[in-house]
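Good morning C.,

I know you're traveling, so I'll keep this short. The sequence:
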Amino acid sequence: MPQPQALVLAELSAVEQRRLIGTREISPVELLESCLDRIERFNPYVNAVTATSLERARAEAKAAEAAVMRGEPLGLLHGLPLGVKDLEPTAGLLSTMGTPSLRNHVPSRDVELVARLRRAGAIVVGKTNVPEMGAGANSRNPVWGATGNPFNPNLNAGGSSGGSAAALALDLLPLCTGSDTGGSLRIPAAKCGVVGFRPSPGVVPSVRKVLGGSSISVVGPMGRTVDDACLQLAATAGMHPGDPLSYPLDAGTFLQLPRVDLSRLRVAWTEDFGTCDVDPAIRRAMREKIAAMRHWFAACDEIRFDLGEVHRCFDVLRAEAFVAGMHDAYERDPASLGANPRKNYEMGARMSLLDSAWAQAEQTRIIQRFQGVFGDYDLVLSPTTPVSPFPWTQSHATVIDGRQQDNYYRWLALTYITTLTTHPAISLPCGADEHRMPFGLQVVGPFRGDLALLGASRALEQAFASHAALRRPRPDTSRLMAAEPSLTSIVTAAPENPHAHEPNDQGTTSVV
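The tokens, ready to paste straight into the viewer:
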């Protein structure tokens, strides 16, 4: 049983943990063991952390401690335990993407994102759960099972970065990675009460995307606070030839966010961007949040949007990416892709060059239309998701406000619309909804205005902290109960040599 002080150490912010390591007030070894204690105690309830590399992590923590004691220069993330989303290849650590065809896949090299995090001193503890091949916003798959919500494990944690969000919410790990096409950073952050930041395309290089010129898929940080997310961002941002949209920038600026006076901001808000189905309870929650904060701003106006054919545009661009990335696998064996990836592939395979050309042009028009808002406003606010968390056994939201959804991802429209605009966007914890589940506020910044958005988000976060209805909710770990049915009930077969729900030192392919 973990000691109380060990549990408290893991609950500190990543920024504070890193400061205390630098001042020799805590050891990377102590911090790692604190996180492993929490994983052992709480991960079985939510199934957020999957494959682990504990022997290597403990060795790296000891080396990190020795470096501190020798007075060596320390990286931005020196000694901080890290969870890596199971879409990102990790050297020597099982990387399955939640799909049976990669059940025993152990890469020989880190993807660039992970390599940068390691170079900054982070210690990779393990992988975090995802939907199969990242398709969808409910993190469940036939390899590892489902991730339950930290506030109620019978409900879903969102996706595709659901394991990362749940691990952060329960203080299992101080930093976790994410990625985002239609909302995969922001949606799980909203459902679990943490921060998920979708940067502008190219800020953090995404070298594993097949369509290098596409702006819809990005990688980005998750954290319990804006500053924690910025710490990871500073360690990963910057140009890389693997992503042709990346460009030279000073990553250190993300550690020096501008101070923002909320009273000078002009804020626009919407419940639905004029085209999204949103549950009435979420609409009510959004209006209540706005009523509680509108007096903070110079202006806070509900505005109307007419952005064009956003749904069809996203359908085509998403399907195009699936066709590009999964053609070979589909040709070998269509069943190897899983239901959702296969649907996207087959949708794209039926499309023509005319569809692709139209979608590229329509996205350009959507971007241009969206710019009109920022002539008068500094930020756009909306709900992050249109529904409160639903049971993880339900693959997706099929009906919203009485309207049947066209497909398994249509319920992500609040976030994929902002994806199409290419603007940076963040989901901030903003109190709870009427079901007492976390409410995520999506905040969209100006074109390429990542620093401005992050500065404003930190100011909002600080203001929320002093307001009972807006501050970040925290899960009550004393009330965690096992999900029914079991979160691993959909696993078809375990990876080789698993040690289910049990941290261990026997290699790098265990499951916790």
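Safe travels,
E.
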